[in-house]
Specification:
Radius of gyration: 41 Å
Strand order of the largest sheet: 26-27-28-1-29
Low-confidence stretches: 1-7, 22-32, 89-138, 459-465
Helix content: under 10%
């Protein structure tokens, strides 16, 4: 008899009195209790792997297609892998250079746990709170170009500052004192207090042609129109020595640790040793015209000289003749600077007919590079804080330019002088330059960063914008 209600035909009223017991089900196997295995862990019913850490390259899933396939299939395969795996492996083989073999046999190939390695830089994605699955490669942000003010932050009037390409009338000491030759006088301006001091007056029969501070900043050398070289104590404003030897004006001076070299219109270079009583200790003869550029290397081993004969000559301490004669310039060489960052590297600039800055290796005399500036090169100075240099120019643009080395990309071009920018000096901290021109002004520019931080110099105190007089 069936027990289903729908199949019983019972009279009304009998359904409640009739009791039907269900038929028990029959099992042909004994009941086995279901107990979980002690050695296994129960997981969910679905498993979704994280492909970002699957190391699919270990299964040869990201290898380059067989070279027998056509080139068109190669591009298609790369796109397919990118869609399937979320990245495009290097076409040169499996990532990591494994040549299809596992990266390491000790790795757990089936570990589907997302790894979070330590970020390689503070700008890594994981360090900024971005989820790993949504992470994308983020490189270090590009360095923001340094902004150099286009206007000078201070201007000094310098009456009687001569417009003569062959003179050197401005220098800045390591004790933060600026010296300027104006006519027959030399003035000192303290960058700390803005105090102006008249150091000397050579009188009507003589004139100032060049000035140069010693390295420690205590003594100032002055080259005169009569060919003399005077040594002054900058603190006491007293002359301590007068040395002759040149027959005409001394237009350029250069100090080493214990030697003062002077260049003259008489074509000669004299080396003065203040420890001996004679006027000069040695002489260099090599130029065929006036010597207008002179710089000792930072290690005091080599002397570079430039002349109106378009030559750049390299001397050492023991040579009576130049070890190199560099004749590629086609105009007078006044601008010379040695790199403080690399040994045996010197830069020189040519006059109006040349307009080029050339870079030389003084160990073999080879020219390393050359850049046409478009204007007469009057001065060069290499920054000690960064591997950059500044050049000042005359005809025809009278500009100031900052260059990166060795790329020789222009960092900035500064204008403001109305005549040739003939004079250049750098502050002791290496951040500020002062330029002088025949327009009888001295202009101060914030050009280079400090050694510790690229923040510009603050315009406070004596550096506030303004125009005053040097005398």
């Amino acid at each position: 008899m069936e027990s289903r209600k729908s199949r019983l035909n019972l009279p009304a009223g009998m359904e409640s009195s009739l009791r039907l017991d269900p038929v028990p089900s029959v099992s042909f196997f004994p009941a086995i209790p279901k107990t979980p295995s002690p050695k296994k862990t129960t997981y969910g019913d679905r498993f979704i792997p994280c492909r970002s850490s699957s190391r699919l390259q270990n299964f040869a899933l990201t290898e380059k297609p067989s070279p027998s396939k056509e080139g068109g299939n190669d591009a298609y395969s790369r796109l397919l892998r990118a869609e399937l795996f979320g990245h495009d492996p290097s076409p040169g083989g499996t990532p990591g250079g494994a040549q299809g073999s596992p990266i390491s046999p000790n790795k757990n190939l089936f570990r589907f746990k997302t790894d979070h390695p330590a970020p390689s830089s503070p700008f890594a994605v994981s360090s900024m709170g971005i989820g790993h699955d949504n992470a994308v490669e983020v490189s270090t942000p590009p360095k923001i170009p340094r902004k150099i003010p286009k206007t000078p932050h201070k201007v000094l009037d310098a009456p009687s500052l001569q417009d003569d390409f062959y003179l050197n009338l401005v220098d800045w000491s390591s004790q933060n004192v600026l010296s300027v030759g104006l006519g027959t006088c030399v003035y000192l301006w303290s960058a700390t207090t803005s105090k102006v001091t008249k150091l000397c007056d050579l009188g009507n029969r003589d004139g100032v042609c060049s000035i140069q501070w010693s390295k420690e900043g205590s003594y100032l050398a002055i080259g005169t129109s009569l060919g003399d070289v005077q040594i002054w104590d900058g603190t006491r404003c007293k002359m301590i020595r007068n040395m002759g030897g040149h027959s005409t004006r001394t237009g350029v001076l250069a100090w080493s640790s214990c030697i003062l070299s002077s260049g003259s219109r008489d074509k000669n270079i004299l080396n003065h040793d203040l420890r001996i009583p004679s006027d000069f200790a040695s002489q260099h003869v090599g130029h065929r015209s006036e010597v207008c550029g002179l710089k000792w290397s930072h290690d005091d081993r080599e002397l570079a000289s430039g002349g109106n004969d378009n030559q750049l000559l390299i001397w050492n301490q023991r040579s009576q003749s130049p070890i190199f004669k560099l004749t590629e310039h086609t105009a007078a060489v006044k601008a010379i600077t040695w790199s403080p960052h690399q040994h045996n590297l010197v830069a020189s600039g040519g006059g109006t007919a040349d307009r080029c800055i050339r870079f030389w290796n003084t160990s073999n005399g080879n020219m390393l590079n050359c850049v046409d500036t478009g204007s007469q090169v009057c001065n060069l100075a290499w920054s000690k804080n960064v591997n950059e240099l500044v050049s000042t120019h005359g005809y025809s643009q009278n500009q100031i330019m900052v260059w990166k080395y060795p790329s020789l990309n222009k960092v900035a071009t500064l204008t403001g002088h109305t005549l040739r920018v003939l004079y250049l000096a750098m502050s002791p901290d290496g951040q500020t330059i002062v330029t002088g021109a025949g327009d009888e002004t001295l202009r101060f520019w914030n050009v280079f960063p400090s050694i510790k931080t690229p923040a510009p110099v603050r315009h406070t105190g004596v550096w506030s914008m303004g125009r005053t007089h040097i005398r």
